[in-house]
Amino acid sequence: MAKAVTAVFLMLVFLQGSSGQPGAQSSPDKAPAVVKTETAVHADMKVDDTGRINAESFARINGIDMGWTDIEVLEVLGPPDKVWLDDYTPGSKELRYDGVTVGFYDGLIEYISVDAGEPAVTFGETVVPMDFKALAGTLGEPDFIAEDGWVYEGKGIAVKLFMDESGQKLESVDAFWAYSE
Questions:
Q1: What's the pTM?
Q2: Measured between alpha carbons, how far is 160 from 46 in angstroms, rounded to an integer?
Q3: How far apart are CA 17 and CA 11, in angstroms?
């Protein structure tokens, strides 16, 4: 009973200030969870003219669509393990699930971060083991290499393979909106 009350309380706290309209119904597509695999699985993999995963696949990471609201994420994934509210940036918050963090600003997804400890990451319908070589092989040449990782851009969304300070260990795979001037 206490867990149920806590979950309801966290959802209410989280939804406070959400961009969702009262009474609005949403029905996001239910995506399958990440499947543990040893090799990349290319189910209807869409590639562009460079042979890389099509940038449209960046819009759905581990079954979470970058266009969803906080309400839609809660409907699909359920209550998070933890909710973090940013005291310094009103409207910013994170839903933290086991292995995945979803960041929001004013109720809209800003980024999705998948921990390197997860067995795999899914881009659209393509499942790739959480291994730098497998990811780089599947994603192809990066659009640029930053001091903390490799970045791939496409159709307003960027994917970054974040590396530790030594550049030898994968820390996370993040998808975020790529704003340009």
A1: 0.72
A2: 19
A3: 12
Q: How far is CA 142 from CA 40, 150, 180, in A?
A: 18, 6, 17
Handedness of CA 158, 66, 49, 131 (dihedral sign): positive
Q: Provide the H-helix boundaries in 36-97.
A: 70-77
- Coil/strand/helix, residue 138: helix
Residue 60 exposure: Cα atoms within 13 Å on the Cβ side:
18
Cβ neighbors of 47 (< 8 A, separation 6 or more) are: 53, 54
- Each residue of 93-121: pLDDT tens digit? 999 999 999 999 999 999 999 999 999 99
CB burial of residue 150 (10 Å; 0-12, 13-18, 19+): buried
CA distance 123 to 159: 10
- Treating both helix axes as pointing N-terminal to C-terminal, what angle do 2-15 and 70-77 enclose, rounded to 10 degrees? 160
Residue 66's closest CA among 78, 57, 53? 57
Strand (E) or helix (H) holding 169: none
